[in-house]
Amino acid sequence: MRQNNAFSSLLTNVLPSDSANSSSPTGTPQISPTALLETFIPGYGPIHRLILSTLNIDITVVVSLVTVIWLSARIFRSGWAVIWSLLSSYFMAEISVSSTDEIHSHLIAFLAHQYKVKPARRLMAETPSKSAWELDSEDTETPETKVDSEGNIKWLNFSNQEAKSQPRFTPAIGSHNFWHRGTYFQLRRKEVAMFDDLGGGSAAFKDKEVLTLSCFGRSTEPIKTLIQHAKAHFHLGHNAKTIIKRPAAKDMRRFGGRGSWVKIAERPCRPMKTVVLDEDRKMEVLADINEYLNPATARWYANRGIPYRRGYLFYGPPGTGKTSLTFALAGVFGLDIHVVSLLEPTLTEEELGMLFTNLPARCIVLLEDIDTAGLVRNNEIEEEDETEKGRRGKGKSGKDNHGGDEGLNVANLTKALKRANEQSEEEKKKGISLSGLLNIIDGVASHEGRVLVMTTNRPEKLDEALIRPGRVDHQVAFGNATQTQIKELFVRMYTNDLPRTKFLKAISTPLGSVANGKLAVIREKEDLPTPPVTPTAVEHTNGHASAPTTNGSPPALDGHPKVNGALVIGEKDNGEVGEDELKTIARDFSVKVPNDMFSPAEIQGFLLKRKKDPRKALQEVGGWVEGMVEVKRKGTKLVRIQ
Ligand SMILES: Nc1ncnc2c1ncn2[C@@H]1O[C@H](COP(=O)(O)OP(=O)(O)OP(=O)(O)O)[C@@H](O)[C@H]1O
């Protein structure tokens, strides 16, 4: 109570006298705290009087104190906001990143990682989508198929998959501060509404996010370093993966920039050794691309006035490895694959041109099944139009004969309008013409630095303009499996897996360059074919040297994953078959399959069904071959033995 009195007198000094009518010693009327509170807090007077009369407590002191604290906090916050804005304007550097750029996702992933350990009050929870590859971790064991007590098979069940995946926490929308490697950063995450014209008269507001990073000082270097760390962190997690992108949805493409391409998949790099193809042919493509991608080559091209572009045509029957080789090449050179389907109905020539200009400096552009893309020469279109006009002309004159003067009556006008509409619809559907594509591939404004890969099953159907040198610089023929390739496919199928980490390391660790004066290909461990021209030893980055093969076509069993120099051939997954026996079975198997009759995809399909039992594959291959020969002879698509 004494304390209360002391406080009251203190407050009375600040807001003197309890009486509304009291006067200062000089005679100036003074306003009491209660009167002041009554003025600013509606209803305070009656409440104050009620509590005073019933409980005999004067709440003026407490309410005044709370008011003073609240006011001080407001004043302090406003003052601090002014000081902070002055500080940020004059003493802080900042970099903004839009969500349409991939750096945004790198930064968010990096911050999510940081905020795993950092205590924070405002976070945003997200469910990260993971691919089947990402769900596989070191401790994932191949689950045994279980049988319950009644003898029923317990099939795997993934219905609670989503529930199991851990949420990811990122900084919420708003301002955050954090320290990174001794530097203080401020992060502002905000959403901006963009007015998006969707075309056809419709429009909508879309949310875009902007991240702004700032730090003290006039240099943006610390932020750039932070972004580098975020990128490095991202690529660490995506090491040995091939990213596959496709054109973004139509309404996103219109903004251009890197946002015109979206990632659709990410998968472990395909080791080059898993593509069964003549080693010389593989080596030629690798050397050619390696030479082309060399940074000095761009200058070489520029000095000679040659456009810095390279195109490849992979042709051959279905399932012979055209796409597989493209993926393996992307893995070797660490390039993303940009897949374009020319059959996409919404893709126009201008958009395709814009997509090509928004490609990264180095990447692979994959145009699959180019023969089915329905590309026609413009003169063919013109011919078609002429025929159509002729048809309509005839119809019209026929009518004239019967009906005399046609005149501009309403019915005719309506028909003419309808025809015009039909025509423009047809025009729209025509999509990409051959001349349009040729322009995009090597027109004046065409992107330089990319590797263009076109695949086809029917090269004879391609227009020669499309594959003339400059557009296609290197052609690779793919064919059905030869005896050696069948053997190779077989051994690969029954070779035991490396543990996950060793597998990732094996496909991502470059061994150094093959310095033979002619070629400097970055080799993957045990992966790339040995260059045919090297009688010298290959220097590895670890200082060891390995003897290369000199015959240019390594035997089928070469290049398998090796641990401590030993070939990893199964004792577990392949039905307890040892290395020597596997080689013998592979040879016998290859003898039973006719040379050059089945595609690697067909043989792989047969083996996959017996993937744990090489002996069974050998036993059943005779029947399968008979059945397949019959299928091919009759031209039916239904197989008896799969
Ligand atoms: N030469 C090969 N070496 C290893 N695997 C192959 C080979 N050819 C085909 N395969 C396997 O067959 C499947 C289909 O191969 P891929 O898609 O590369 O064939 P493609 O020639 O591109 O076929 P398409 O012309 O139908 O697109 C893949 O699973 C791949 O692993």
TrEMBL record:
Residue ranges, annotated region (Disordered): 378-408, 525-558
Gene3D superfamilies assigned: P-loop containing nucleotide triphosphate hydrolases
UniProt xrefs under SUPFAM superfamilies: P-loop containing nucleoside triphosphate hydrolases (SSF52540)
Molecular function GO terms recorded: ATP binding; ATP hydrolysis activity
PROSITE patterns: AAA
Catalytic reaction(s) noted: ATP + H2O = ADP + phosphate + H(+)
Lipid bilayer topology: Single-pass membrane protein
Pfam families tied to this protein: AAA, AAA_lid_BCS1, BCS1_N
SMART domains: AAA, BCS1_N
Family: Belongs to the AAA ATPase family. BCS1 subfamily.
Protein name: Chaperone BCS1-B
Organism of provenance: Hyphodiscus hymeniophilus
